[in-house]
Amino acid sequence: MMAPTSKAFIIRPARPDDCGEIARLIQEVEEYQGFGDKETATEEDLRQDAFGDDPYFRALVAEVPGTADAPGGEAKLVGHAMYYFCYSPVVRRVMYLENIYVEPLYRGRGIGTAIMREVAKIGVKHRCNKMQWVCLNWNDVAVKFYQKHGGKDVTVEEKWHLFRMDQQELAAFARE
After folding, report:
1. What is this structure's pTM?
2. Residue 154 within a domain
């Protein structure tokens, strides 16, 4: 799948050699969200987890042609989306959008919409009945973006709470 969305950028599946740039973009997301002090996936983690024998996620990237900020006229990755498939006994096939990000300098050009649309197309191709994701409650720009594209905030509407166990709690619970 190579989905040119305009002459200014393309959306394409990530390749193993993109993992360094994806790691950089993830770090930018974490810093933007105020989690810059947390350890994030490294280039090698991403390569293993996306392209190893048992992939945990898939990714798309947004690429712009060579520019002044891309040395040597090489294309530059300016955005990405990470997703995976899961299952619900109620709705069956579900696509989970784990991460979507476009560098601030490249926002407002339709790149985020194009990435999200390509993820949605993959979900439709795989007969998913739902795509879901989370968004920080203070990120009004993202909330408006998702709502503009048909996303519904089910936090209040369906009265869901998101729970988790981090590694320490998971390991402690598994030992009991």
Report:
1. 0.88
2. no
The two structure tokens encoding residue 60: 């798309």
Within a domain: residue 153? Answer: no
- Token match 């988790």: residue? 164
Q: Evaluate whether residue 172 is within a structural domain.
A: no
95 forms beta bridges with 85, 131
CA distances from 44 to 5, 19, 41, 93 (A): 29, 7, 8, 29
Domain of residue 9 covers 3-133
Q: Would you name the residues annotated as active-site residues? A: 146
Domain count, the chain: 1
CA atoms within 13 A on the CB side of 142: 17
* Alpha carbons 55 and 111: distance in angstroms, whole number: 25
How many CB atoms are located within 10 Å of the residue 79 CB?
24
Q: Tokens representing 100? A: 């979507």
Q: What ranges in the chain are assigned the alpha helix state H?
A: 19-32, 43-51, 111-125, 140-148, 154-157, 167-175
pLDDT digit string (tens) for 78-90? 999 999 999 999 9
The model's pLDDT over 19-73, given as tens digits with 9 standing for 90+, comes to 999 999 999 988 888 887 778 899 999 999 999 999 999 999 999 987 655 556 7
The CATH number of the domain where 89 resides is what? 3.40.630.30
For residue 54, being part of any structural domain is answered with yes
